[in-house]
Amino acid sequence: MSQATLALRRIRGVFRRHWYLLTASWPRMLDLVYWPTVQVILWGFITRFLAEESSLVANAAGIFLSAVLLWDVLFRSQLGVSLGFLEEMYSRHFGHLYTSPLRPYEHVLAVFLIAMIRVALGVGGAAVLAIPIHGFWIGGVLGWSTVLFMAVLMAFGWSIGLMIAGLVMRLGMGAESLAWAAIFLIQPVSGVFYPIDTLPGWVQAIAWCLPTAPVFEGMRAVLIEHRFDLGLLLHALAMLCLWLVLGALVYMALFRSVRRRGQLLQTGE
Q1: How many CB atoms lie within 10 A of CB 260?
Q2: Distance CA 214, CA 219 (A)
């Protein structure tokens, strides 16, 4: 049997474990859909109110709803990766995993797959629900650029999730709050609900080092100016590659440190 086949079987094994955990617990399933749905309903009504007061919002249909859904793709993908590792730490399962032939990259790929499903169920459910409630469909206003924007944000969420997982492994469960809090550190400089040029100059320099800034600027270009800015997408992809490499390097460095110290069996503490 080839090494590739063995690797796929190990990836499938980890994926199936997390899939069964997810589908066997209705609170987990409810949590996936609950918050994206609440945000879509809330921002939908805010958009209706502002549409009567602001010509910009009136002319750019769904600008806030699009921003909320795209931001939730990033948040849910990061949280999906972080929770994929936290589940193993809660159950003290890491030691069992790595007494098997499982390799770190196979574990990571399996967690990425389950994180994609979490995003599809959570954000997808909210996006569909926005159709009867607000008459809004994100694919209708952003067109094919929706897929590109979501793909960039999802992959960026993976990179942040990897770094958080490595930190929690190294520092212990006392650092698990990073899984919920860390992503919101970049929200103010990502231009989710406002243009980047409203930020101070030095903050703008930080913003353009993230893939999020060009994505949300590109979203507004599509909605307000009815044009797709290829330059912004290329900038987002360049920054994304850097962050994916950084996430992988940080995770592997911390994983090796934990393994060298013999802490894989104590990751629940």
Answers
A1: 8
A2: 8
User: Do 36 and 122 touch, CB atoms closer than 8 A?
Assistant: yes
Helices then strands, counting H and E runs in the chain, come out as 12, 0
Evaluate whether 127 touches 70 at the Cβ level (below 8 Å).
no
Instruction: Please tell me which residue, 32 or 158, carries the higher pLDDT value.
Output: 158
Question: What Å distances lie between residue 111 and 74, 80, 144, 268, CA to CA?
Answer: 15, 8, 27, 18
What's the pTM value of the predicted model, to 2 decimals? 0.80
Q: Is the pLDDT of residue 142 over 60?
A: yes
Q: Based on the number of CB atoms within 10 Å of its own CB, is 33 exposed (0-12), middle (13-18) or buried (19 or more)? A: middle
pLDDT band, very low/low/confident/very high, at 40 (cuts 50, 70, 90): low
Measure the CA–CA gap between 268 and 242, rounded to whole angstroms: 31
The proportion of the chain whose per-residue pLDDT surpasses 90, expressed as a percent, equals: 25
The pLDDT of residue 196: 87
Percent of the chain whose predicted confidence (pLDDT) is above 70: 79
Query: H helices of 24-142, where?
Result: 26-51, 55-59, 63-90, 94-97, 104-134, 138-142
User: 166 with 250: CB under 8 angstroms?
Assistant: yes
Give the residue from 28, 4, 124 showing the smallest Cα distance to 73: 124
Amino acid (1-letter code) at residue 219: M
Both tokens of 247, joined, read 């996430």
pLDDT score recorded for residue 36? 66
Please compute, for residue 94, the number of CA atoms within 13 A of its CA located in the half-sphere on the CB side: 27
Q: For residue 157, what pLDDT is reported?
A: 94
